[in-house]
Write a structure and sequence with these properties.
By secondary structure, the chain is α+β, with helices and mostly antiparallel strands. It contains seven helices and 19 strands. It folds into two domains: about 5-75, Alpha-Beta Plaits (2-Layer Sandwich), CATH 3.30.70.20; about 85-285, Ribonuclease Z/Hydroxyacylglutathione hydrolase-like (Metallo-beta-lactamase, Chain A, 4-Layer Sandwich), CATH 3.60.15.10. A seven-stranded mixed sheet has the order 5-6-7-8-9-10-11, with helices on one face. Strands 12-13-14-15-18-19 form a six-stranded mixed sheet, with no helix packed on it. The model has no long low-confidence stretch (mean pLDDT about 95).
Length: about 290
């Protein structure tokens, strides 16, 4: 629980604050940028929420924080925020909130679909979220993008009996469905698993309609204004990651939904392809 006595000095004055336990995962300032901002090596309050919607989003960011670094002197709205996830992003795609310290605050997503709901990466095993997932039809499949973002997958399998899917190259065993190789795998008519080795040996993306869930393989960098990836936080092969990024040019999508980094929505598949081509030019020079 956040402590007022440990609050960062650069928080805007007011009831909401971020304390020194913050790990700078980015969840709060990606979810509620009207209130939170990147303070360098931590998040900070740049503007105290003043209207009901800003207060609601700030309270949800508090709930989503993986290490409980956000505090408030006014507890109003927190019970409702705890029940507000999964939060709709677009059509049948939801942000699960309740990020996990085990995954350094990586985002996980729910795809609600008639053929069975899918979790992309694992959120924290929080009871309010699990109850809401049950109310939305449960979870039939849990796709794990790579070894860093598995979080509480065991608890979700125990609760929902979901099939856990992961690439064998990341070394996990005792899962229900381990895939191999670099060829795309059709999990269902509307679900395509795309192996994208590089960040880790077994990194994968999931394509659902025009939504590409990318784990830590690809994300939007709002400061630089383009899609990006990290050579610094690469645990297997940067060259293979770049090759995997290039292979994504063969697929059509308008959304990039990462585990870390910002979400991006392009106007068309062609516009997204142009963004990816631009990113590749930048990244190959880095």
């Amino acid at each position: 629980m956040a402590r007022r006595t440990d609050a960062h000095a650069d928080n805007a004055p007011g009831p909401l604050f971020v304390d020194r336990t913050c790990i700078d995962c980015g969840t709060c300032y990606q979810f509620a940028p009207g209130t939170f901002a990147d303070g360098g090596d931590h998040a900070k309050i740049h503007t105290q929420p003043g209207d009901p919607e800003s207060r609601r989003l700030a309270a949800m960011a508090l709930v989503a924080c993986p290490v409980g670094s956000i505090g408030t002197d006014d507890k109003a709205g927190l019970p409702a925020a705890a029940r507000a996830f999964p939060h709709p992003l677009a059509e049948d795609v939801f942000f699960c909130g309740y990020t996990s310290e085990k995954s350094f605050g990586a985002w996980s997503y729910l795809i609600r679909r008639p053929g069975g709901n899918v979790l992309m990466d694992s959120p924290r095993a929080a009871e309010p979220l699990m109850k809401n997932l049950e109310a939305l039809g449960g979870v039939s499949m849990l796709v794990l993008s790579h070894q860093d973002d598995v979080a509480d997958h065991v608890a979700y399998h125990a609760r929902f009996g979901c099939e856990r899917i992961m690439h064998r190259a990341d070394g996990f065993t005792a899962l229900e469905h381990l895939v191999a190789g670099d060829a795309p795998i059709q999990l269902a008519e509307d679900l395509l698993l795309i192996p994208t080795p590089g960040h880790t040996a077994g990194s994968v993306c999931l394509l659902y309609r025009d939504f590409l869930f990318t784990g830590d393989h690809l994300w939007w960098n709002p400061d630089q204004g383009h899609l990006s990836a990290s050579r610094t936080y690469n645990w297997h092969s940067w060259e293979r990651q770049l090759d995997s990024l290039e292979r994504l040019l063969a697929f059509e999508f308008t959304w990039v939904l990462p585990g870390h980094g910002s979400i991006h929505h392009a106007a068309s598949p062609a516009a997204m392809r142009a963004e990816l081509e631009r990113a590749l030019r930048v990244l190959r020079r880095s």
